[in-house]
Amino acid sequence: MDPYLVTFLPSHITLKAEREETILEISRRAGVDIEGPCGGRGRCGKCKVLVKKSKGISEPSEEERQILKALISSGYRLACQAVLRDETTISIPKAEKCSEVRTNKGIKGGFPKLRPVSFVEWELEESDIKACPSKEEIILRGLKRKGFKREAKVELELLKGLPPLHELLEKRLIFVLLKDGEILKIAKDPIQKIYGIAFDIGTTTIGGYLVDLMEGQVAGSLARPNAQRAFGHDVMSRVSFSMEHPKGLTLLRSSLLECMNKMVEELCDQIDIRPDMICEGVLVGNTVMHHIFLGFPLKDLAHAPYRPLTTKAIRLRAKETGLFLSETGHVNLLPPKAAFLGSDIVAAVLATGIHKRKEPSLLMDIGTNAEIVLGNRERLLCTSAAASPAFEGAHLKCGTWSMPGAIERVEVEGGGQEIRLKTIGGLTPKGICGSGVISALASFLKAGLISKTGRLSHKIPSSRLREGEEGLEILLYKGEGGEEVVITEKEIGEIMLAKGAIKAGIQVLRRHWKGEEISQVTVTGSFGASLGPSDLKEIGLIPLGVADTIKTVENAAGIGACMALLGVRKRKEIERIVSMMEYVELSQDPEFEELLVEGLLLEGA
After folding, report:
1. Cβ neighbours around 65 below 10 Å, total
2. Which CATH number applies to 4-95?
3. Rounded to whole angstroms, how far apart are CA atoms 333 and 338?
4. What is the pLDDT of residues 97-123, one digit of tens each?
5. Distance CA 140, CA 119 (A)
6. CATH number, span 343-389+495-599
7. Partner of 477 for a Cys bridge, out of 151, 417, 429, 586, CB 3.0 to 4.6 A?
8. 226 with 203: CB under 8 angstroms?
């Protein structure tokens, strides 16, 4: 086949293709962001694109005909189904920029008690050279002479970058050391600032934090959608992609690294510094993201008994990972606990301090997966419950990310005659995000518009209740141009299943605990932190008898990552937390299925 060009609008990105590929496959190589929550299986319809012109494209598949219907005649195709064979121009409708996505990944303030670095200055003298057999020994001797109490450690990479000894004679050297004695940087000129970076790599969103290591302050933060969403919204779809495609893992890893390196650039631009001023990094995330970043095979995470390659902390040179930081910088990957309990929940335990409390507390990190920890300073029980991409809006018919225009709150008045919507940014509704769905269910339940079994009631005004393609649905919004936002009865069922799994997971941990009652509940995560405590109670996600006090922490995993970045001792504390955690496998619990069924009902606590 002759090479042909493919152009994407509105970005005007053009690249060469040399074989038959789907539009989605080509977009991944081009770095063009097209959603693919279902992993390219032609089920969700979210990868809809407009083919402006093409000299060679496949006929619409059956999946496309079912989803797009009359839109096909206008040139619309599903990117995961349409196969290109010749020159083509493609427009991506309503392309969403990363900067438009609102997240809760920011961290305000700082950590004034945590300053991981110290400085030692001394002048190299002739006597130093005569007394030591190597440049390394000269440095270590000089640090001791200046009163540095710990055993210093210097990597060969740092030594290789130093000028010859005769050039250093009688010059003042400045050493930047971590509190455990590792030398981060050696400079001849005064150092004004030195930085570290922490990443919370979520399935949906990546949070990045630029941290001033001298002041213990977060100097800049931002969040971006994980670029891997083009390969599937949930972790298992990405695991499947890595196994089904010869270069699947490479594509997943390169898209992740590209996203993270762009974030490094943006963070540096925020405070006008260079990436080579970042000398230390800490990464947390779920175990699949951890393995993808390291390039580890994912097969053992795809099948029982579900075992990660390692659950130990890992420290690597930054340049070995592909992150564009200081040439001599390092990246620390904090340890995950299990296949479905990543280092993000471990970092969240560190941040919330439940491992230090006398009274038992419950911590839930809710995203596309729900990680749950119950415990105190004596014991930590933990588990993972399959939540749902629907929790974050991805698999819903009218679902969207937490971006301007997404419905985030729903209030019902007048028995359903009036539905008030609050959108992010106060804009015209573009869809509904996960917190909006939970808010809607809680409001519907209060108003009697849905039953405890999730059935839509005929009390709903006929102008809002109708029969759709997937059964009954309730109309939330209809725009002047005919655009609509609905919630279907089928989608309510999906939410109930996820909610039931989380509630059952909590119940299983409580039965294993066999101790005093839970004193406090903390909810965090990309989705969990945006939920209203009253909504959680209304739909019955929190079981009866659990603490009345429910608080949300916007990004416990990110806070924990920053704490580990700023405190070498905190990294040791993380390892202690992992050793304290006792993993409870829900599928092996004889009561889980029964509790799951009981937890499906939408009934308040």
Report:
1. 13
2. 3.10.20.30
3. 14
4. 444 444 445 566 667 667 778 888 888
5. 14
6. 3.30.420
7. 429
8. yes
